[in-house]
């Protein structure tokens, strides 16, 4: 599962550095880069990320002020402070910040913070993830066990769950499903999410792609080049 995050920092160089460090990490997707607490709250009215990387010394609302307001609003996003000032650490942790990373940002330290918060997110999701998805055809509805799904493929504009020899149409978009499915489901291109636990083999294909096959199905899924590159980091076959 991909975790989403916002970067909030008034300095362009700091936002750029964080972007360069995080963009290659397959488990993370940067959804917004914002310059102030005010911009953050405006964006939060539209969508809420899993994690907020937050500077402290900013014009207007400070990072500590932002954290206080996030807590008052019961925002569920995890907050990691990225700052040049160590003196605010006690206030940050008193406000339930997930971590506190000092500038200049070190890749290993940032990855450690992200790994810790990813584990917190995994535990929270494990308590709330659905066990089934609903498939509806006409007036008939059916529960599809998530662990029985080999892959979900877009077919003529419809998301279709493949479970062995059976297929079930789904109403949700792949982006919505990506956020609801367990971590062993992986998006291998724009039109497909696969269940890594049901893979039987991955064959090298043209242009750096992979042809995926499944244990209980004759289904074959061809990844994108980027999907193949990211999937290789997770394969345990």
- What name does the CATH topology of the largest domain carry? Rossmann fold
Radius of gyration: 20 Å
- Sum up the overall morphology in one term: elongated
Helical fraction equals 25-40%
Strand content: 25-35%
Per CATH, the class of the largest domain reads Alpha Beta
- Side-by-side strand order of the widest sheet: 2-1-3-4-5
Query: What is the β-strand count?
Result: 15
Domain HTH LytTR-type: 144-237
Pfam families: LytTR, Response_reg
Organism: Pseudidiomarina piscicola
InterPro entries: CheY-like_superfamily, LytTR_DNA-bd_dom, Sig_transdc_resp-reg_receiver, WalR-like
Structure description:
The protein is an alpha/beta fold and 237 residues long. It folds into 2 domains: 3-128, 3-Layer(aba) Sandwich (Rossmann fold), CATH 3.40.50.2300; 132-232, LytTr DNA-binding domain (OB fold (Dihydrolipoamide Acetyltransferase, E2P), Beta Barrel), CATH 2.40.50.1020. Helices cover 30% and strands 34% of the residues. The chain contains 7 helices and 15 strands. The protein has helices at 12-22, 37-44, 63-72, 89-94, 107-128, 174-180, 225-232; strands spanning 3-8, 28-34, 51-54, 78-83, 99-102, 132-137, 140-145, 151-155, 158-163, 166-170, 185-189, 192-195, 199-204, 210-214, 217-222. The strands form 4 sheets. A 5-stranded parallel sheet has the order 2-1-3-4-5. A 5-stranded antiparallel sheet has the order 10-9-8-12-11. Helix 1 links the parallel strand 1 (3-8) and strand 2 (28-34).
């Amino acid at each position: 599962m991909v975790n989403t995050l916002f970067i909030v920092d008034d300095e362009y160089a700091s936002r750029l550095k964080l972007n360069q460090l995080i963009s290659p990490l397959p488990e993370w997707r940067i959804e917004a880069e914002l310059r102030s607490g005010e911009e953050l709250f405006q964006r939060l009215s539209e969508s809420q990320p899993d994690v907020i990387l937050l500077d402290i010394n900013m014009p207007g609302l400070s990072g500590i002020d932002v954290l206080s307001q996030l807590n008052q609003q019961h925002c569920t996003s995890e907050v990691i402070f990225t700052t040049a000032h160590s003196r605010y650490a006690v206030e940050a942790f008193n406000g339930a910040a997930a971590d506190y990373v000092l500038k200049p940002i070190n890749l290993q330290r940032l990855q450690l913070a992200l790994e810790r918060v990813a584990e917190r997110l995994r535990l929270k999701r494990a308590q709330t993830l659905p066990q089934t998805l609903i498939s509806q055809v006409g007036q008939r509805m059916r529960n599809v066990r998530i662990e029985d799904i080999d892959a979900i493929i877009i077919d003529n504009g419809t998301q279709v769950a493949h479970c062995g020899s059976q297929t079930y149409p789904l109403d949700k978009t792949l982006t919505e499903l990506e956020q609801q499915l367990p971590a062993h489901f992986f998006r291998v291109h724009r039109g497909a999410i696969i269940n890594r636990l049901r893979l039987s083999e991955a064959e090298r294909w043209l242009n750096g792609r992979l042809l995926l096959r499944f244990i209980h199905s004759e289904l074959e899924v061809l990844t994108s080049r980027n999907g193949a590159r990211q999937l290789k980091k997770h394969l345990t076959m």
